[in-house]
Amino acid sequence: MRIYYQPTLLSFTTVVLLSISAAVARGGSRQLLYTRDDPITIPPYLIFENVRLERAYVALQAWKRAMISDPWNLTANWFGSRVCDYNGIVCSSSLDDPLVKTVSGIDLNHGDIAGHLPEELGLLTDIALFHVNSNRFCGTLPVGFSQLSLLFELDLSNNRFAGKFPEVVIGLPKLKYLDLRYNEFEGKLPESLFDKDLDALFLNSNRFVNKIPVNMGNSPVSVLVLASNRFEGCIPTSFGKMGKTLNEIILMDNGLQSCLPNDMGLLQNVTVLDVSYNWLVGELPKSMGQMENLEVLNVERNMLSGLIPEELCSLEKLREFKYGSNYFTGEPATL
């Protein structure tokens, strides 16, 4: 027999494939045995190009079974051994052996599919892209995702995922792009998220609460969007440490109550800064006049006061500045 997953590698289930010859000799079908009562079976007449595509077949069949609605019939051709021909499935040569074809990506964006993500998706150990935005998937990320060591982009946006932040993503070593926006995740953000080597992080329009972790400045992201959650308290003082990598940051529509950090000028690569619809107080730091690449600045609907720094209004690239519904004194200099 061939063992795909051993309990020491994957605790949530043990997957054992009975040998083809033994199954055929009994006149039965090849079968994957799980801890569940309804295992995925592989008909004996299906021939796969390699073991990895056979594993992908099992994962995708389990996923199709976990879908309760597919109004556009995107998975209608998800049958048979030619998994690389399935809609939304991307195949390429594996990284460790160019002669072996494997499933390297999934793109079911805008499918309006309802269902959940089964544990068997952990069998897709070669995928780099997993895109399922604009569907109706619910639940949360299965533990099986911990096996996706090559996953580079994960887009779960605009679905119905819920529960605490899916910390399984923290352990994904290659992950650079994480998009969880427009879901129903809740609770605190783990500090370990901002120690992870990400390039883009979208968490807006969920139900995250409490304070933004103090180590936010450790993150090397170029884009950070935390808008429309229920964060409160201060903007972390580590903010300025993001100056070398950060290009866009959106913190609008939360409950942030602090002053803007005095070292805002360190964010010299930032082009978009939006902290509108919070409870920020104090004055705009004069150091913001050093944000030489700033193009869009939105601080409206806060409790900011004082004079708008002339240094800020002299920024050559600033083309949009919204500051209404605050307590500023006088009018800003002509931009």
TrEMBL record:
It comes from the Eukaryota. One of its GO terms (biological process) is cell wall organization. SUPFAM superfamilies: L domain-like. GO terms for cellular component: membrane. It is a single-pass type I membrane protein. The keyword Signal applies. Gene3D superfamilies: Ribonuclease Inhibitor. InterPro entries: Leu-rich_rpt (IPR001611), LRR_dom_sf (IPR032675), LRR_extensin-like_regulator (IPR051582). The keyword Protein biosynthesis does not apply. Keywords: Cell wall, Cell wall biogenesis/degradation, Glycoprotein, Hydroxylation, Leucine-rich repeat, Membrane, Repeat, Secreted, Signal, Transmembrane, Transmembrane helix. It is found in: Membrane; Secreted, Cell wall. Transmembrane segments: none annotated. Belongs to the RLP family. This is Cell wall hydroxyproline-rich glycoprotein.
